[in-house]
Amino acid sequence: MTLIDDRAPASVARTIAGISNGELSGSTCAPELTEGPWAFDLGMPGYGPGASQGDLLPAGSAAQGELPERYRRASGEELSSWIASAKASLGSRVAVMGHFYQRDEVVQYADFVGDSFQLARAARELPDAEAIVFCGVHFMAETADILTGPSQAVILPNLAAGCSMADMADIDSVEECWAELEARFGTSPDESGRVPVTPVTYMNSSAALKAFCGEHGGIVCTSSNASTVLEWAFERGQRVLFFPDQHLGRNTAKAMGVPLSTMPLWNPAKAGGGLSGEALDASRVILWNGFCSVHKRFTVSQISAARAAHPGVRVIVHPECPMEVVDAADSAGSTDYIVKAIAAAPAGSVFAIGTEINLVQRLAADYPQHEIFCLDSVVCPCSTMYRIHPAYLAWVLEELVAGRVVNQISVPSRVAAGARVALERMLAARPDTTMAA
Ligand code: 13P
Ligand code: SF4
User: Which residues does iminosuccinate bind (predicted)?
Assistant: First the structure.
């Protein structure tokens, strides 16, 4: 069986296969990734192989049923031709969205490729598409469903494509935290009209948390607009509760001049978040104890090694990386910021990039005039982004051709209404170039 499409030269699947069969030097964190994701769909509790395989999958997480055999047994060439002909017969009735971290074998069929902010905006601007096939992760498909019309179906090709960081904040724990903050700070605004706490959720969160923000005077941010959103929140609140990614919250607020001593870490597993009353009283940004296992892999010593081996190298990392890594890099920014920085550089530039390997390898192939490499030499993709394989894309598209909608992501209308408020506040906020300097 061929899992690799010949038209995907930058393919991470190809790299992992090459490492596993000894044709390429290097190492991967998960040699099992040479198998199709259907090998992990049934009966394996967890996120699957890749960067987040050690994270705790919450009980009741969505699981993918068995992919029909026709798709499991297909060659790369067969899948390509099935996808192409299904897309041709569906025409503008379907739009395929692809996040930058998707495999090349999937990205090549996407009508829109972008970061989570761009894809959210694009989904909103497609009123004529009957179906949006979202090649990304669950929270992105939920967001697309919230922003699109009631007659449009949003489809996630593999339901097991969640996000371990998003799962680190659940609605019950956030509500408990909120009740404790209300008990301490009350609900009355100060003399300048600012409420005690404004909640801000990263896009990488469930629709329930976005709805919580919408209903509590809060807002959503992505990594491409986090400082604009924090400014928005500070105008309205004395302090911010930021979830689920501690690193994006800390890195963004620090770049805005917020002292670290005013950013306590709320640990939902501990009573009172594990924080003293004094720490809460002094807080400007209360950070949730969540993180991304892909970006946690990047270290200051990788940056030192890159600088030693490549004098003049420009190091750019995603703001989900730990603070020490962002501080040691030349700049930090969203995936879109990284793409644009590379596109704008003079030929012959050398870049060491700290973000997901599918994007880094694609950039290296798209910009042969530069030298571009990943800071982490171990090939370790995002476990859940990697669960979207062309076999699932072929399946959901052929089901659509047959008039059947499978793997639809449907956010209940009450949750969607609150989440839409928080998302529209974000979409109305001016985009920024968070930490791009
Ligand atoms: P972007 O917001 O840059 O698209 O990143 C999404 C994500 O999941 C990063 O890990
Ligand atoms: Fe989630 Fe990290 Fe994967 Fe992004 S890269 S989807 S934050 S686990």
Answer: 99, 116, 202-204, 223, 318-320, 335
